[in-house]
Design brief:
This protein is mainly alpha-helical. It has one domain. The protein is globular and about 55 Å long.
């Protein structure tokens, strides 16, 4: 459970960090992620063309979900000393609901991928997504603290 909470926090931080830049950087991040996935999963040009619309749809949906909670998560983590029981309860509810919604998005995304790619390619695809996220977190954590927001 601690790993899931840590992953959520890291995901939120990465989304918040990227969102502090302009919208072009969000699209740039998605494009970098897509290029990374295509390369690592070794998708053919045809597979890539068939799957990219689903990737874009999924990324936008996850981004929108994170945006809905962005201000609350940011304020919650900034105000460590003044948290009420109600704020903790709301954070827990938002966390659980966000995870459920992301799971539904992922399930729908997977169903669309299954129609376009063989199982082995999907396995490599999801591994590539995880590798991208790990590399992004590693790069972000290596930045000097003065450059983080």
């Amino acid at each position: 459970m601690k790993h899931y909470i840590l992953l959520l926090i890291l995901t939120c931080v990465s989304f918040l960090y990227a969102q502090e830049s302009n919208h072009t950087n969000v699209d740039e991040l998605h494009n970098r992620k897509w290029d990374f996935i295509v390369e690592k999963a070794k998708l053919s040009a045809q597979e890539s063309a068939r799957v990219k619309p689903f990737f874009v749809e999924y990324e936008k949906a996850v981004w929108t979900l994170m945006e809905r909670n962005k201000d609350f998560f940011r304020d919650f983590y900034r105000n460590k000393d003044n948290r009420s029981e109600a704020q903790y309860a709301e954070m827990n509810e938002r966390y659980v609901n966000s995870e459920i919604q992301k799971a539904h998005l992922l399930k729908n995304y997977y169903a669309k991928l299954k129609k376009q790619l063989p199982a082995e390619s999907i396995f490599k695809y999801f591994n590539a997504e995880r590798s991208f996220r790990k590399e992004l977190m590693d790069k972000w954590s290596d930045r000097p603290k003065g450059h983080r927001k």
